[in-house]
């Protein structure tokens, strides 16, 4: 998937996979940025530089449950000769109340609580008697069970140096520093950082709204009984799931009958909520292939869609164009279930990523060794065989038929058989596209 064609293929000639993909991507621009809530921004590209408004952490705080002390008071302390300090209070995380630690004093302090004035370090509770007078403690007693724990005396069994068990203000990141640069993809840690610095929203390229509609009068939604000649609509489900997986906000429209007026009306209805339309079925040469029939007739303000044949199997018949005044891109995929799926992965996934401002091609093929021969592959068409990949070896599952949804569900990869290759021996090295 590397070369970019200068001009579309001559009429009648098969388009290569690269030519079709380049035609689609050339027509797409990333969506305009919007400001959205952090969790809605997950997986999106940030379009602003975000700076840190206030230091993180915002104050010196304890990294351990223990006692805030003055280092001079615990110098030389040991279990045999503990430093005995007067406990002047409790400091819980979140408490704004500040006790001051004077000479000979300690404050019981919890992880995350602000270091009190006067103290220079924290002694973990395990290095003290926890105020019990009975040797090393393993934990503090819960405040509810022993409210007196914030008073009395504590025996400290080890010395600490200044700053021990203290997380200094700004030690994570300083005020004014760059938190995240424009162009960053917001994964969970980046969303966490934005929240930590107090940002509730981010300016990002939004997820494209992708409307998926399948076509075919034979289609019945899953859950309903089949009459003779009918089948369940699986494409609208797999394509909607694929669109979500690629990062889109996907809307599944139920199957549309093979009726030109219905299809036209449905497309017009759906245009208003779509950044990208995906259809399945109705693009080959049959008498009821209404997607091709209706969309081939579009012109002027309606937009236009070009139908072409690709040098690939499955996925030969494809349509691409733009609809309506807003020129919403539309990819018309073939109806055979495997063809629709493979076409999505090769063309629609990159299109969604391009609209999000992401690198369109995130799945560079890996090289793998075939575990068994491929007996035949159509000359002049790049074949994508369903397969399972493990540790550099790949095995084809099921046949080449583009109706084989069980084998597709068993697969986790596609073996790429080049256009001019008509058979491959076991042990041959092939390109593999890993799925999921
Ligand atoms: N004479 C020719 N016939 C066909 C050619 C050709 O070149 N000459 N190409 C074949 C190829 S390759 C493909 S791929 C298909 C594409 O056909 P369409 O895009 O027009 O798809 P349909 O005819 O609507 O459906 C094909 C097949 O898939 C089933 N289907 C459709 N939609 C769904 C769905 N949502 N869920 C499950 N299954 C679906 C449909 O029932 C058909 O069996 O054309 C070949 N024919
Ligand atoms: O090319 Mo069709 O997409 O083989 O089944």
What does this structure look like?
This protein is an alpha/beta fold. 18% of the residues lie in helices and 27% in strands. It is built from 8 helices and 25 strands. Strands 15-12-16-20-19-17 form a 6-stranded mixed β-sheet, with helices on both faces. Strands 7-4-6-5-8 form a 5-stranded mixed β-sheet. The longest helix has 19 residues, at 337-355. It is elongated, with a radius of gyration of 32 Å. Ligand LQZAQKY5 is lined by residues 214, 216, 218-219, 231, 233-236, 255, 280-286, 289, 314, 316-317, 334-337, 339, 402.
User: Briefly, what CATH class of the largest domain?
Assistant: Alpha Beta
What is the name of the CATH superfamily of the largest domain? MoaB/Mog-like domain
Distance between the termini: 19 Å
**Strand order in the largest sheet:** 15-12-16-20-19-17
> In total, how many domains does the architecture comprise?
4
Helix content: 10-25%
Q: In percent, how much strand structure appears in the residues?
A: 25-35%
Count every helix, treating DSSP H or I runs of 4 or more residues as helices: 8
Structural class: alpha/beta
CATH architecture of the largest domain: 3-Layer(aba) Sandwich
Catalytic activity: adenylyl-molybdopterin + molybdate = Mo-molybdopterin + AMP + H(+)
Protein name: Molybdopterin molybdenumtransferase
Cofactor: Mg(2+)
Pfam family, one: MoeA_C
